[in-house]
Amino acid sequence: MMALLVCAPAAWPQSQPVLPTLEAGQVVQRLMERNKERADSLQHYIGKRTYHLEYRGFPASSEATMEVEVNFDAPASKRFTVLNSSGSKLIQNRVFHRLLESEEQAGDSSNRQHTELGPANYTFSLAGTDGTNYVLNVEPKEDSRFLYRGKIWVDAHDFAVTRIEAQPAKNPSFWTTKSVIHHTYQKVDNGFYLPKENKTVTNVRMGGVATLTIEYQSYQVTVAKPVASARRVPSSEGAIWPDGGINAEVANFVSSRK
Fold first, then answer.
1. Rounded to the nearest 5 degrees, what angle is found at the Cα of 36, between the Cα atoms of 120 and 220?
2. Do the beta carbons of residue 236 and residue 161 sit within 8 Å?
3. Minimal CA–CA distance to 246: which of 146, 108, 105?
4. pLDDT tens per residue, range 121-152
5. How far apart are CA 169 and CA 218, in angstroms?
6. For residue 256, what pLDDT is reported?
7. Listed residue (237, 255, 238, 184) closest to 43, CA to CA
8. Are 146 and 103 in contact (CB under 8 A)?
9. Of 120, 32, 115, which is closest to residue 76 (Cα–Cα)?
10. Do 176 and 204 meet the contact criterion of CB atoms below 8 Å apart?
11. Distance, C-alpha 131 to centroid of its chain
C-alpha cells in the first residue's frame, strides 16, 4: 500500500489592513474636529501618576520618585495631591513640584492656543501608515520649548493621538545637548484616550544622562457628556504636548548640579 503524504498548507503572513487614503491636512483636520468633540465631552476624571527621575553623571548620581493623585475638571483645570515621595529632595523640589505647578498653570486658554497641535503652530506631512495609524511628520513653525518636532501616530478610526516621538523645538538650557521624548496614550473608561507613559531622556553637556519617566495609572472618568456626533469617541486630553515644561525643569536641575 502506498503511503499518502499530506502536506500542510504554508502559513502566509497576514497582510496589514489598508487605510483610507488621506492627505496630511485631512488627517489633521479630522484630528482637530474630534479633539474638539472630546474636549467638550470629558468633564472630570481622577487618576494617579508616578514620577521617577534618575540622573547619572557629574558631580554625583541621584534619583527620586513621587506618586501623586490628579483631579481634572473641564476645560483644563488640574489639582495635584502628593501621596508619597522618596529619594533626592533636590529632584523633588527642582523637578517634580515645578512640573506640577507648571501643569496647573497650563490650563490658561492663551497657553493652550500657543501649543495646540494644529496648522497654526505646526507643519504636517504624511510619513506613512502602520496598519491602524496614520504617521505624520510634525515640524514647529517657531522655536519654542513648548513645541516639538518629530512624529505623531493618529488612530485611523478614532483620530486620536496614540503616540508621540519627538524632540523639543528649542533646547531649554546650555547644559543640555539633546532631549528625546517618547509619549504613549491608553484607552480608558468610556473609551477615552489619556496619557499612559512619558519617558524623557536628556543628555547633559558634561557627560551625564537624566531619564525622567512618568507613568499614568488608575484613571476613573466620573463625568462625561455625550459628544456632538452622538457617539462615544476617545479623548486625547494632553495630546497637545505632554508636560511641555519637562525639559526645562530637567535642565534647571542639571544646571544646579554644576
1. 125
2. yes
3. 146
4. 999 999 999 989 999 999 999 988 788 999 99
5. 32
6. 60
7. 237
8. no
9. 115
10. yes
11. 21
